[in-house]
């Protein structure tokens, strides 16, 4: 005895077996029974965005050595839609946001969100259900302060508490921002900030969120105070006082601490 399953009608029109989601196995060695198997993982390709659909299958049974002796039995399979489940969400790391800030200036760049990766819709019907008819899964989550790190060259990074010009206030949603306020020449350069996104669904990705370039442009220079003593010069008097300006301090605003050359 042999058996097969088709979606075309009875009467010999069985040239299109649909074995991708329905199949017959057997016979069982002990009982001789045949088993109809339905692959529910492929349900979304059958049901689309409908609540349920009816699929008619035709089970053909025939004698093993006399295949012309056969019969068809129709069976209606009711396929119902699975509930949406966003647990299979994956994430792709975004490109870091580039920020340029001058010393004595401020900026508040927001951390870029990771990008939804919906590849699992191909093998998870409950996840695929979420994206039917324009649906989606929320890209919600938070950036915990303890997981916002300064890239100091180590694998774990450094806590922001060691960098007083970089501060963050924990938010209740996924729009956290970093307060960038460089104040000294030591802040000049390129700095990277990496974060961990605690997502509502799926894994928690860690990535470089910000690349901060700190620059400095001098807007004014305060010259040293002019000498007020020993300003009399007598011709041919070897006791005249000489004023040395080689170490005079010229104060830069903002404090860029650029090297200054005195020319007299």
Secondary structure layout:
Blueprint: E1 2-6, E2 22-25, E3 35-38, H1 43-47, E4 52-62, E5 70-80, E6 90-92, E7 97-102, E8 115-117, H2 125-129, E9 141-142, E10 149-150, E11 158-159, E12 166-168, E13 178-180, E14 189-196, E15 198-199, E16 206-215, E17 220-222, E18 251-253
Parallel strand pairs: 7-16
Antiparallel strand pairs: 1-4, 2-3, 4-5, 6-8, 9-15, 10-11, 10-14, 12-13, 14-16, 17-18
Describe it for me?
The structure is a single chain. By secondary structure, this protein is mainly beta. Among the domains are: 79 residues, no CATH class; 95 residues, Immunoglobulin-like (Sandwich), CATH 2.60.40. Helices cover 4% and strands 32% of the residues. The chain is built from two helices and 18 strands. The strands form seven sheets. The protein has a five-stranded mixed β-sheet with strand order 7-16-14-10-11, with no helix packed on it. β4 and β5 form a beta hairpin. The protein starts with a strand and ends in an 11-residue tail after the last strand.
Question: Which features characterize this protein?
Answer:
264 residues, mainly beta, Immunoglobulin-like, five-stranded mixed beta sheet
Helical content stands at: under 10%
Element-by-element helix/strand order: EEEHEEEEEHEEEEEEEEEE
Q: Can you list the strand order of the major beta sheet?
A: 7-16-14-10-11
Radius of gyration: 37 Å
CATH superfamily of the domain at 94-114 and 142-215: Immunoglobulins
CATH T-level fold name of the domain at 94-114 and 142-215: Immunoglobulin-like
Low-confidence stretches: none
């Amino acid at each position: 005895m042999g058996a097969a399953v088709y979606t075309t009608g009875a009467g010999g029109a069985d040239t299109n077996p649909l074995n991708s989601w329905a199949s017959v196995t057997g016979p069982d060695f002990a009982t001789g029974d045949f088993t109809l198997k339905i692959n529910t993982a492929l349900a979304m390709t059958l049901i689309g965005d409908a609540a349920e659909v009816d699929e008619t299958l035709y089970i053909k049974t025939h004698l093993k050595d006399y295949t012309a002796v056969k019969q068809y039995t129709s069976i209606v399979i009711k396929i119902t839609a699975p509930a949406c489940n966003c647990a299979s969400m994956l994430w792709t790391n975004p490109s870091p946001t580039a920020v340029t800030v001058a010393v004595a200036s401020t900026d508040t760049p927001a951390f870029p969100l990771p990008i939804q990766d919906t590849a699992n819709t191909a093998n998870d019907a409950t996840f695929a259900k979420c994206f039917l008819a324009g649906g989606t899964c929320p890209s919600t989550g938070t950036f915990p302060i303890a997981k916002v790190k300064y890239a100091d060259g180590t694998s774990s990074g450094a806590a922001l508490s060691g960098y007083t010009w970089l501060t963050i206030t924990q938010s209740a949603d996924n729009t956290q921002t970093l307060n960038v306020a460089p104040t000294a020449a030591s802040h000049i350069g390129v700095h990277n900030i990496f974060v961990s996104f605690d997502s509502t669904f799926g894994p928690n990705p860690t990535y470089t969120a910000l690349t901060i370039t700190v620059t400095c442009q001098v807007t004014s220079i305060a010259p040293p105070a002019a000498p007020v003593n020993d300003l009399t010069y007598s011709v041919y008097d070897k006791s005249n006082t000489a004023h040395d300006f080689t170490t005079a301090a010229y104060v830069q605003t903002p404090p860029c601490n650029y090297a200054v050359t005195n020319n007299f």
